[in-house]
Amino acid sequence: MIKSFSPFAKHSYIPTPLELRVVLRGLVTWEKIVVLAATAAVVIGILGAWIELQKRFAVMVPAPGGSFAEGIVGTPHLANPLLASTDADRDLTELLYAGLMKSDGKGGLETALASNYTISEDGLMYEFTLREGLEWHDGKPITANDIAFTIQAAKNPAIKSPLRANWEGVDVEVVNDRQVRFLLKRPYSPFLENTTIGVLPRHIWKDVTPEQFSLSEYNRTAVGAGPYRVDTIERNAAGVITAYAVRAFESYALGKPLIRAITLRFYNSETEALSALTAGDIDALSSLSAEKTAGLRNFADRLRVLSLPRVFGVFFNQNKSAALQDRAVRLALVQATDKKSVIKGALGGFGIAVGDPIPPEILHRGSPTDPFDLDAASSTLAKAGWKLNAETGVREKTSGKKSVIPLAFTISTADTPELASAAGIVKNQWRALGADVTVKTFEIGDLNQNVIRPREYEALLFGEVVGRDPDPFAFWHSSQRNDPGLNIALYTNKTTDKLVEEARTAHDAVLRREKYAAFLDEVRRDAPAAFLYSPSYLYVAAPGLQGFDTRLITVPAERFANVHAWHLYSARVWKIFLK
Fold first, then answer.
1. 364 pLDDT higher than 70
2. For a surface tag, which of 74, 330, 425, 446 has the fewest beta carbons within 10 Å of its beta carbon?
3. Model's pTM, two decimal places?
4. 310-536 is classed in which CATH architecture?
């Protein structure tokens, strides 16, 4: 017998599913429609209310999980922060190791293994305190002894670390298990940059002799403290590494990375890597050259364009060219350079024009535009006595002894597509001014060994890598004119020498910036080079990648600066449950 049910009864009764089914069977068609419509309205109302509550009280937050594969051109050999010398090596060390400090991806530094640091007023002592509970990938604790061991190894000439010069004149002391102190012989304002060096585990490396350092298997099966740890390594039949699979490290200093695993796949050429991306064998691709951007039409929404503080220009060797000794000639060549055309033709538009030895984003200073003005350039030369030879189309100037100096010189550069193209464009622009310019290209090794080191060039189209905290000393101080110095313009100026010396020892950031600004103004007046551009770094990110907020990097590996915060998934969480 069916019990009666009334919503107005003193004690409400909830019917069973069987009872509801029996009641529905007894309804006529129009009554069923009314019941279904009412039920749908209730359900829709509840859903609407839930959605409104979600909008008001819930937010989207990163969710853990997922993986992706990235293509890298080159083969890794030494996944060791002290020995890494190629982009492939540095990419691995960025994922597998951690330093006291790290790039923040925006042009600055932030703490990593360190919880905090202090700098003495005289700039000669830096003291760091490690975070509590730090661990290596193998679970062993990280202490200040590991920091000291790493720096002593970097300074050891037998290990031949390319970072050795960074630590000359620096002593390291262990205060206690969590505190380490660096003592400098003289103030050096960019010193914090040195502390981004990846730290090695002393318990693993202490028994490896300096002579065996580069041969150790730990250069491949690396144990570090970075955001990811080695999972598997793939090799081809010849034993060459073709892929590294790494997985998130639960005890990473800045928190377990959200993306579960990353696979780095290595290719012999950019063309091969791009083909793998197109075929779907990889999800991301690093360090793409401008000439290959035409093949990225299907990946335009995933292309990340980052600032890379490198300055390319034509550096004038006045010791090798009589014409370039004339300041008016150098100023006119700068005026006759259409940098926008160079960037469009050689970089596909991916770069910014620069007029200084330091990119504008480093000092947060607007870069002078050096407007292209062929008429002004011609006027500059005419006032200085450089006349156009109607027969040759080349400008000439008569010296005091009636000898004629033609405005002719050679630009030397590397045989890479970008630099060769840029040199050709500049040559044609300067030819319109009346300069007879010849371009010579060299294989990069030949260029470095036989052209740059002995300074055997009249003009050199090349690039300089500028750090986050710029120190132009190696590139522009007169003491660095000869090899192994990097003053490829052979620039000499007592005023700029003093400014650079004062800037690199100034502890106050504002004062340092003022010194650099005065240095840049002086260089512009002398025109020792025609500065062209700072190239962009092109990175094809994995589909759906979120949390990638990096804007400025000093080396390609720094695209992973905040990899622990990258994520492929998101979830909606009520605000009250957020920490």
1. no
2. 446
3. 0.85
4. Roll (3.10)
